Structure formats: structure tokens, C-alpha cells
Amino acid sequence: MRRLELGDDTAAMLGIPVERTKVLLVVLGVVATAAVTAAAGPIVFVALAAPQIARRLTGHGASVDLAGSALVGAVLLLGADIAAQHAIPGVLLPTGAVTVCVGGAYLLVLLVRESRRG
């Protein structure tokens, strides 16, 4: 991955099969996300989105501190819980369903934006 950060041309000159490596990394990321969500439940999905959101809010590049990610995660979970309680009057939705919908949509937007940029 470090060699891919140098750019596609440089990575290719270093002998990295760029397109195949990118596809493999995306597949591994999806499998890891699916495994974590399946094992721990959908609320843990917040832990995947919170650092990404914190990074964009703070403007820091590669490093996001733990406190910022935790704060964003807490706000996301609180918002999801409130939305789950009040989205449909008389019906209590599972908080995990709201976190998956909102977090999944956000991560899809991130993937599309990154693929267009790169």
C-alpha cells in the first residue's frame, strides 16, 4: 500500500500490478468490514465510519487522534439512537439498522469520491 501511495505510475515502475492490487485491497476491505459487522453487530459499524468522518472534520491527513474519533462515534451513535426512536411514530427501530443505513451510505459516498479522485 505504501508503494501505491507514491502514485500509479511509480508503483507500476516498481513492479506492482496496480489495478489487480487495488481490486484486491477493496475486496479485502469489504470482507473485513463484513466479518466485523457480522461478528459484533451493526452498531460496531460506527467504529468504521467515525475515524473517516473525524478526519474530514478536523482536516488532518493521515492521523486522527483517538479522542476525536471517539467523540464523533459517540455523536453518531447518539444521533442514530434518537433517530431510531423517533423516525416512525409508535415504532421503535433497532439502532443498529439506522447506523448501518447512515454509515453504509456515507462509506459508499466516500468510496465513489475516492475512486473518481484517484
Summarize this structure as a short list of keywords or feature phrases:
single chain, 118 residues, mainly alpha, 2 domains, 6 helices, 77% helix, elongated
Describe the fold and architecture.
The protein contains six helices and no strands. It has 118 residues and is mostly helical. It has two domains: 1-40, no CATH class; 41-118, no CATH class. Helix 4 (45-58) packs across helix 5 and helix 4 packs across helix 6. The relative contact order is 0.10.
Characterize this entry briefly.
The chain is mostly helical and 118 residues long.
Indicate the topology.
Blueprint: H1 2-5, H2 8-13, H3 18-40, H4 45-58, H5 66-86, H6 95-117
Helix pairs in contact: 4-5, 4-6, 5-6
Helix content: over 70%
Number of strands: 0
How would a crystallographer describe the biggest sheet? none
Give the class from helix and strand content and strand pairing.
mainly alpha
Query: What is the overall silhouette?
Result: elongated
Oligomerization category of the chains in this entry: single chain
